Amino acid sequence: MEGPHHRKSPPSGVTRRTALGLIVGAPLLSACSGVQQSLSQFTSPFSGPEAGPAGPPQQPQAVGTGQVKVGLILPLSAAGNAGVAAQSMRNAAEMALAEFQNPNIQLLIKDDGGSAQGASQGTQQALSEGAEIILGPLFAGSVPAAAQLTRTRGVSLIAFSTDSSVAGRGVYLLSFLPESDINRIVDYSAGIGKRSFAAMVPDNAYGNVVEAAFKQAVGRKNGRIVAFEKYGADRATPARSVAQALGQADALLIADDGDSVVATADALTAAGANLRNIQMLGTGLWDNPRVAASPVLQGGLYAAPDPAGFRNFAGRYRAKFGGEPVRTATLAYDAVALMAALARTQGAQRFAPETLTNPSGFAGIDGLFRFRSDGTNERGLAVMKVASGGATPVAGSPKSFGA
Fold first, then answer.
1. Which of 161, 239, 253, 279 has its CA 20 to 30 Å from the CA of residue 138?
2. Average pLDDT, stretch 252-258?
3. How far apart are CA 250 and CA 54, in angstroms?
4. Model pTM above 0.90
C-alpha cells in the first residue's frame, strides 16, 4: 500500500470532503461487504466465456433520463455463469440509479456477448451515442478491444476484470484485486509481530499475481520468506517442503479458493505440519463455508471487505428483484453510483483522470476504494478471523487511506 509520503494532494476542486462525503453520499455509504465466492468468479471475475450455448443477443437499452451519458458493457447473453452474473450486475446498476436521488445520468447498456468483438461493437455504439465514460467489460480478454476505442476518443474506461495486466492509461479496474488482499494481510501480520513467512499458492495466473504481491509486501515490511511453494494437481511434494520449514516461520499463507485451501491444509497436515502452532493467513477467497468448517483453519486470518455491506446490499436487491445477487453485482452498483455522484459534484471535470484518481478515494458497498494512476485499484479491507460460527473482524476497514 502507498505510504503517506506517496500521496498526492487532492486535485483542485476535489476536496477530502467531496471525495469521502458528497461523492459517496446516499447510495454509496449504504454499507461495506463480504467476499469472492469462488476462484473462477474472483480472477476475471471470469477468465472468459464458458463453453455451451449462449443466449440470444440482447437489444441495447437506455436507462434513466439524465443528460450525462454513461456506457455499460456486459456479457448479458454469454453462456453459463457469466451471463447470469451480467444480468445481476445490470440489475445492480439499475438499482444504483433508482436509489440515487435525481441522478443526472443515462445508462447506455450494451450486450457484448462475452467476446472482444462484441465489446468493441458495444463500446463504439455507446461512444457514438455520446457516452462520456464506459463501464465494463467484464472479461479481461474484452478490455483491450474496448480500450482501443476509448483511448482514441480520450474517454476513460472502468472495467470489472481483476487481471491487472489490462489496466493502464485511461483504463481503470473496479474489481477485487489479489494484491489488495495480500498487502493488507501481510501489513497486519507484521503489525502483530510476524516476521518470517511461508506460503503455498496455486501454479496458475492467480498464484503468479499473489507471488509477486506477497514477496513485495514481505520485503516492504523487512520480513523474510523461509519457504514458498507452488502446487498443481500434486500438493503432497510441495507440502512436504513447506512442512519441513515451518519451524522457522511465524505465519503461513495459503492463497486459493475454499476447497483448495482445505485440501492444501490437509496435505500439510499429512506431511507432518502442526498448523495449530502457526498463524494461518489467507485472502478474501477464504470467505467460504469449507474454510469455516475446517478444524485446522480455525483462528486463521484473511483480508476481505467487511461483510456488513454486502448483507445490506443483498437485502435490498432481494426486495427489488426477488433473487440473490452475484458477488460481483456490487461492482456495477458502485460504478454507477460513483458516476452519478461525480456528475453531480464535479462539473466538466467529472470523469477526468485527476478526478477518478483522487488519492482520498471513494466509499462504496465494499468499503473504501481508490484508483491508481496505473489503472489498478486499492481497497480498504478488514481482517477477518476464521471461526466455525462465522468469521469475525479482528481489524476493521480503514476510514481513510494513507495516515
1. 253
2. 95
3. 49
4. no
CA distance 224 to 228: 11
Cβ–Cβ < 8 Å for 119, 133:
no
Angle at 258 between CA 254 and CA 264, to 5 degrees: 45
Q: Report CA dihedral (181, 135, 9, 397) to the nearest 10 degrees.
A: -30
Q: What is the rounded end-to-end Cα distance, in angstroms, of the chain?
A: 11
- CA pair distance 317, 19, nearest whole angstrom: 26
- Read off the pLDDT of residues 374-389 as tens digits, 9 standing for 90 and up: 999 999 999 999 998 8
- HEC readout, the chain: CCCHHHCCCCCCCCCHHHHHHHCCCCCHHHCCCCCCCCHHHHCCCCCCCCCCCCCCCCCCEEECCCCEEEEEEECCCCCHHHHHHHHHHHHHHHHHHHHCCCCCEEEEEEECCCCHHHHHHHHHHHHHCCCCEEECCCCHHHHHHHHHHHHHHCCEEEECCCCHHHCECCEEECCCCHHHHHHHHHHHHHHCCCCEEEEEEECCHHHHHHHHHHHHHHHHCCCEEEEEEEECCCCHHHHHHHHHHHHHCCEEEECCCHHHHHHHHHHHHHCCCCHHHCEEEECHHHCCHHHHHCHHHCCCEEEECCHHHHHHHHHHHHHHHCCCCCCCHHHHHHHHHHHHHHHHHCHHHCCCHHHHCCCCCEEECCEEEEECCCCCEEECCEEEECCCCCCEEEECCCCCCCC
Contact 127, 155 (CB under 8 A): yes
What's the CA angle centered on 329, arms 75 and 307, to 5 degrees? 155
CB 214 within 8 A of CB 182: yes
Distance between CA atoms of residues 19 and 29, nearest Å: 12
Cell of 176: 477485487
